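In response to a reviewer's request, we include the raw inputs and outputs for one of the modeled complexes. The two entities were modeled together in a single run.
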Amino acid sequence: MSAVKKNYVVETLRKAQMVELLAKGKRVDGRSQDETRALKIETRLIEKANGSAKVSLGNTQVIAGVKVATGTPFADTPDKGVLMVNAEVLPLASPYAEAGPPDENAIELARVVDRGVRESEMVDLSKLVLIAGKSVYTVFVDVNILNVDGNLFDATSYAVVSALRTAKMPKFEANGEKVTNTGKLVPFPVQKTPVSITMARIGSIIVVDPTAEEEAVMDARITLTTDDEENICAGQKGEAGTFTPAQVMEAAEKAIRKGRELRSVIKEATG
Amino acid sequence: MENKKKLISDAGVRTDGRRWNELRPIRMEVGQLKNADGSAYIEFGKNKIVAAVYGPKEVHPKHMVLPDRALIRCRYHMAPFSVDERKNPAPSRREIEISKVIREALEPALIAEDYPRAAIQIFVEVLQSDGGSRVAGITAASLALSDAGINMRDLVVGCSSGIVDGQVVLDLNDTEDKEGSGDMPVAFMPNLNQVTLLQVDGIYTPENFRKAFELAMTGGRMVYEMQRKALLEKYFGASPSETAMEEEE
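The model returned the following structure tokens for the whole complex.
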């Protein structure tokens, strides 16, 4: 990510060391290739948000908050509510992060996570309509990155999914043309649990859940999101490197297998 | 994502008359713009896209200089009149993301180490958009880069596949892209067999994921033949760049 320093000499030496270790099936932090870091999820910690979740994935920390309001639907989807994911790397998240509007990395991060939530149909947007074509629920999920140590994609995705799974939204009612807040809180129409798995290719090895140190030397990155039925529902290759077709299939297999494991962790943490 | 109307007939014919494994008509031309160091124009179905390359040239601002290789920049941009509803000309979040993935799709093919401290600027301007503008843009930009004489390991070719009415099909048009249930743009270096761009959306069983990926690669190889011919035509006046689809099934 942007918030990582690139240092050519150290990076080159470190990469040689990592490749050597990986050839022996080891990683610099002692994990195996397919092992993710410890995942910790806390939910409902921001009382003023309709839903919230703080996720720690190793030393990467992110917090997501859900805000629900009403607004007009998009012209091409008059019968669906509006759901948007936004991400920002806060300037306190890393010595290399800077304040300012989201750069291309933050935009890619938000859009890839958004794609996973949207394409898996995690939230039934057809249940978020008040007056078709005129008034719908608008759901904003904003993610703030608090500490950068690699794999912001998965940490952000887990935070968004956990926040939505535990969110309670205000119940609005439409009377003719008028929309009023009933003051009641109801759970979100959540129907799926998408799980994002991000992998880095370092040399010929594909590792799951890369740290910032691994990301600094990786050749290419791939994120694949799966749903409860173990379909692949979103994906993005990143960085100026390549994958062979066989490596793409290997990544898909890993995403399905690891996704299954992490889905149960997320479900357990979010009841 | 529910499909209200059928996009593929019972006879297996798509909205524009194609079958599942057929590409739209494609035309490419190299070297249209005189001021650019390299340029290419592509028509891919209703997509009309012009790509241009400037560089290697000096880097501004100077602190962006890379000591060991060229800085690659890319801008993908859609004209306000390229879509049904006028598009605000300011870069959208979608365009910013696509600019990034196009750059990352082309960069592996460039021997950027040959141009330390220099910048190579790639522009992809979509004059009219149909489904698959990013992959058509990559195909054109790759031609523009080779027209600019930039040292390259291979051309990069793009093609997409997707899921329409539950079926894996090649090269989605606008209607299929918007109303179908999945889109998978792929770009790769055909001679090195290396994938440089992969994006996935929609619901794919593991089997359909493999099928769609392989179909996009197969389609890409057909586009590559036309890409090669367009270059040969520019530099050697060889065979016409407009290639009929009949060759493939």
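As requested, we also summarize the result in words. Chain A touches chain B at residues 8, 75-76, 104-105, 107-108, 110-111, 115, 118-121, 222, 224, 227, 230-245, 247-249, 252-253, 256 (CB under 8 Å). The CA atoms of residues 131 and 178 of chain A lie 9 Å apart.
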